[in-house]
Q: What sequence folds into this?
């Protein structure tokens, strides 16, 4: 799953966003990003 996230989000993005994405994915299915 991490690989998919990495491909979806280039490393150019801020590390904070990546961490938030991983946290959301771990919390559930990304409810925070569903907005």
A:
């Amino acid at each position: 799953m991490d690989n998919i996230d990495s491909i979806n989000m280039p490393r150019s993005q801020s590390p904070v966003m990546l961490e938030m994405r991983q946290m959301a994915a771990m919390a559930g299915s990304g409810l925070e990003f569903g907005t």
